[in-house]
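Changelog-linked ticket: acetyl coenzyme *A example.
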Amino acid sequence: MANETTTIINNANGESYEFPLREGTIGPAAVDISSLYKEAGIFTYDPGFMSTASCHSAITYIDGEQGVLLYRGYPIEQLATKASFLEVAYLLLYGELPDEQSLVGFETIITRHTMLNENLKNFLDGFHYDAHPMAMLVGVVGSLSAFYHDSLSVNEPRHREISAHRLIAKLPTIAAAAYKHSIGEPIMYPRNDLRYCANFLHMMFATPCEDYKPGLIAEKAMNLLFILHADHEQNASTSTVRLAGSSGANPFACVAAGIASLWGPAHGGANEAVLDMLVEIGDVKNVQRYIEKAKDKDDPFRLMGFGHRVYKNYDPRAKIIREVCHQVLEELADADNPLFDLAMRLEEIALSDDYFVERKLYPNVDFYSGIIYRALGIPRNMFTVMFAVARTVGWVSHWMEMLSDSNNRIGRPRQIYCGPTQRDYVPISKR
Ligand code: ACO
């Protein structure tokens, strides 16, 4: 890592201080101001982390201006069309693509960890039938901490690895169980003869009285969506996992925190919100009215699935999903999907509107993903759950990377205090 110097001036007393510039392998350099307070007695202020790098990471690279996304150096377009989800999971976790033997070994480990402790089913029974599956996911994933005392030493690399495997393996089982609970059907056990995505489809759609044979198209589509959602560097939920983990918290609690962060409509909750929005718009003739609403600063409505903190160009994941959307809908005999037509028209109008052009607002990954999930028979309230299943791979990869980084310390931002200055307590009778 190159260390050039850069200068920062302390405005308060006019003195200047020099700080190193940290450079990665690609992307903008960062001024290392970690000793700024100690040396100059001032903080930096950057709400929303608009210009702040929180860590070094070798997992995922994004060039938001060019619309580039690399997992461990490999372009997302290549992985999406050529790899399996577990191959990508291995890549994100361990840094290299697996050879055949390593992949088979990894698939076997993940497959053998998919079952849940029977007592966990009681947790699900405690939820009301109309509980949102994300609410169940947050609760049940957090409660996994109560079951694996044998491997919760976060300073032990092998314990970290076992926990990562358990999370990747059990998330689909928990997600499908949450769905089954919400529709009042019995939970389906995982099947070891099925691949990761096919097994998930089986747990979602089979019943004890009727088998479900996952079609190849559905499995392929899910594999693709899972790869596209697997990681996205320091987004809100991943940063949440890292922040929770920086205190030494156990991985199940950290991932539960990540799921909570993902749930918001500005993040992973957007895929559900996009479908809600498309249904609300209802017809192409209403598109312009909704575009005007999105532009109106007095109206809280935003075009869901549009805009991104990092991408100021077309989100490469959205480009891939849009392309396969046609194909998947056709193959699933859902070619005349009015919501897809509506989404494409909405995109076309928004991308030719000055408001969206000037602000560089393009469709993001969630603009089209819900349309495919819907065609696969996944209900709307499960969309963000699907995202969470896939993103678990990214969360645990970042958590493991953070804990093996010698620079890791507890995450603890500073603040600019704007409250009252010191004052004396007034007895209640005198207030
Ligand atoms: N519709 C209308 N206007 C928008 C939208 C939108 N979807 N997104 C951004 N803008 C406008 C803002 O009002 C702002 O306008 P201004 O400069 O006149 O004030 C400008 O574009 C910049 O937007 P910010 O909110 O400052 O951008 P930020 O980086 O903070 O937010 C975010 C990014 C949260 C993704 C935002 O674009 C948004 O809310 N989009 C809709 C929700 C969504 O799709 N989220 C999924 C993101 S992808 C993911 O997490 C997987």
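Closing comment: Example verified and attached. Residues 48, 266-268, 270, 294, 302-309, 359, 361, 364-366 surround acetyl coenzyme *A (CB under 6 Å). The two ends are 59 Å apart (CA to CA).
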